[in-house]
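seq:
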Amino acid sequence: MNLFARQEADYLAAAQPLAARMRPRTLDEFAGQSHFLAESKQLRRMLKADRLGSVIFFGPPGTGKTTLARLIATQTQSEFVSVNAAAAGVKDVRAVLDVARDRLASSGTRTVLFIDELHRFNKAQQDVLLPDVEAGVVTLVGATTANPFFSLVAPLVSRSQIFEFKPLEIVEIRDLLTRALNDRQRGLGQLDVIVEDDALAFLAEVSDGDARRALNGLEVAVKSVEAGGTVTLDVAQESVQKKAIRYDATGDDHYDAASAFIKSMRGSDPDAAIYWMARMLEAGEDPRFIARRIVICASEDVGNADPQALVVANAAVQATEFVGMPECRIILSQAAIYIACAPKSNGAIVAIDAALSDVRNRRLLPVPVHLRDAHYSGAKRLGHGEGYQYAHSHEGGYVEQDYLGVERTYYEPTDRGFEAEIGVRLKTLRSRRQRTDEAADQQDA
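struct:
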């Protein structure tokens, strides 16, 4: 390499952000994802055996999907070709596949085709990949932040191994930051800046497991102080943008957070419920969606154990519509805490689902003649309403009477909260009804 070329290469390297300069050069330098990349795990074994087929890397940004794809190409001595699905079309993909096919035929060199944001390809574009992926012309490494089981076509998923990337642990992020501070060639070691422990801890935690975000924040912090200076906690806090909440309003983040929120209320954990609600609100979730979840939980999981829960939840819906953000966060918090702390019963949903199952799967029950509508002309001629007993005309507002025509039980009250009182009363009424039925049977006999 001549002097000019060397200077140009050095300039380009220096112009790269710290996260790009500190990319791991070997699998041993790679941080995180030990659940599939540790020595005894599947991906490492596939690489050692040189039997890597097409793979899909699924996970949040900054967890190493692109970096690992490059390392795979190096490890397998393959040509690395990168395509961004947001900018490429079918013509571009076909051109890459043609070159890869020629390369394999002429020199035996395999091609690792890395497609970033693979979920942005439509069905036709994904289908173009199938023949060459199946024939082994290319080793496809697709990266996506969307759940591949929903965002990719089934044939492509079935031909690929799926590896889910997880956010890096705080200790892993801190190790990366420390390595960057000490590296005098690629990192920041030549600047001789001291970074206080609490500043380092802040950057490691605020990054949310995103290595790129942590390293970018560290670079800004270190380069914003004088040589030989100190990066304090205040400097670190001023060196990162407002924390961006990773949240796909139509994808897994939305459904997972909502699921955790509901299950926390059901599990009587108000602290967890408030955290998941705060996460949704901070990410921009529609507060009316959260209010609707609270209403559903009030009936599905609290029910008659505390009938007031539905009243509180419904009031929260109306107040949320009336007040809006940011004040409605308080109203939603109050309602969620009430639901989480209320006694629980799923008797209402069990009852209606059991009845719906009978309606859908068993013979429909005719309405007993004495319960049929008797208000129209000619109803009496059909005998409709004959023999019906008006409950309020009897002592206690109750009379033993058949309302279904068969013996079935759908609602089973629990012994929790107000439902315990309902259970006692219902047990008494059912016992009276059963004795009446038995007496009628004996009389018929």
